[in-house]
Amino acid sequence: MTVTEMRREADVKPSKSRGIDLKLEIVVIPVSDVDRAKTFYAGLGWRLDADYASGDDYRVIQFTPPGSSCSVIFGKNVTAAAPGSAQGLYLIVSDLEAARNELLGRGVEVSEPFHDAGDVYVGPDQPYLFGRVRVSGPDPEHRSYRSFASFSDPDGNGWLFQEITARLPGRIDAADTTFTSQTELAAALRRAAAAHGEHETRTGAHDENWADWYADYIVREQAGKPLPS
Q: What is the pLDDT of residues 11-26, one digit of tens each?
């Protein structure tokens, strides 16, 4: 599916019917050295959920990124995939700069921020959601889904930070506004505060109902709806 087709799909209204929940919970990543991989993922600050071995022929380790409902597992004899072959593993963040700085502070090599080249999809870079041409710097318009940074584990399994502050319409229900961490909530409050400051500048008056304005802004942002002015 092309990016254009994806954009068209986003315009399709979601089905109102509800079936059985299907919750993606585990992604398997292939590694060559289990202990080296364990040290790396622990060094990211991810939660170690399990390290189970059965004799010398089987071992499985599970880590969960902060705020994630999906975990990763790796180990010995848990996948036939070649080590390093897992690519395009997306980590969604509300603040790309903060996410980069967190890993850089832990001694992890992370790329500089980059964004897509518009309608140019073929180039020399590693593929990602918007093509193979990585333009330096975050998206100039600071649009959701458009700013990235990348890093790899010791085997070369490729991870991507993708900054999202406002979801596509239909991606979530406004009534289900949630935050997976204190950091994510704080970032949303900072964006609301900045927007509210501009609101007060436009009106030329102090807004006594600022709390209601903040709440409306945050709910609309997460739901991908037009923001209050």
A: 555 555 557 878 899 9
Candidates 182, 179, 181; CA nearest to 222 is 179
For 91, list phi and psi in degrees, rounded to 5: -115, 110
CATH code linked to domain 3-8+22-163: 3.10.180.10
DSSP H or E stretch at residue 202 = helix 182-203
Q: Sign of the C-alpha dihedral, residues 26, 28, 34, 36?
A: negative
Tens of pLDDT along 172-218?
555 566 776 778 888 888 888 888 888 888 888 888 888 888 888 88
Helical (H) or strand (E) element with 103: helix 96-105
Distance CA 149, CA 122 (A): 19
Tokens of 183: 């950091």
Alpha carbons 102 and 99: distance in angstroms, whole number: 5
Helix then strand then coil, % of the chain, to nearest 5 = 30, 20, 50
Which of 158, 161, 160 lies closest to 83 in space, CA to CA? 158
Contact criterion met (CB below 8 Å) for 181 and 47: no
Answer whether 46's CB lies under 8 Å from 88's CB. Answer: no
Q: Tell me the pTM.
A: 0.70
